[in-house]
Amino acid sequence: MVPRQEVSAWRPAVPGVVEVLHARFTEHRYPMHVHDAWTVLIVDDGAVRYDLDRHERGTPGGTVSLLPPQVPHNGSPATAQGFRKRVVYLDMTQLDARFIGAAVDGPDFADPLLRRRVGQLHTALAEPGDELEAESRLAFVGERLRERLRPGLVREAGPAGRGLAADLRDLLDARLPGAFTLEEASGLLHAHPAHLVRVFSAAYGIAPHRYVMARRVDLARGLLLDGRPAGEVAAEAGFYDQSHLTRHFKRVLGVTPGRYSRAGRRG
Hints:
globular; 10 helices; six-stranded antiparallel sheet; Jelly Rolls; Arc Repressor Mutant, subunit A; four-stranded antiparallel sheet; alpha+beta
């Protein structure tokens, strides 16, 4: 029997993200309400119909819906089977008040690139310890939303070239194995987070979050070969917990930390 509703919600440690909500509803109907944050909605199964500023709207497959803050809206299933949705709520640092009018006029985007980027953002937000990746994904989601809302808005270029990429790498290296946010880097280097990710990736062939994880995995390898237990290694190498270490270690090296450590002892 299919449950009538399933809800999970959390507040990740990612600047700009107020809340994440994953839910499945078959019968629930949201009354008219407002949020202080921007609502970025994707529907994975079924469809949602809603009213925004006295206009009826809907979310067919592949659509990204953007509901602006302080504008009343409701929501209900558009089919008898209900819907399954993922929502990320963004604060005004991601989209300021200039964009509210455009979002009211056209809140639904049939944009495969934006839809893919929002999905990637949710995947990163679901994993504790991957906040730098989530922040990178968010930067590109915000950039794409601004492009769709204000097509004539010139993209923030900021400083370019390997100099900026090297400066960002120096900042990341200085903080390793600890965390460093794109928001901090943006303030120090006076460049938009999306631009930082773009120039770093172009210069070094790897995204900043993958660079950090690769450096942490490299540190973990040495600690494991020193005979340190995996739980201690995870903490010392900057991972959220042992499962976080295992996931990234296996992605880089193809084996678990435990197997790697045993192979090293046999060698």
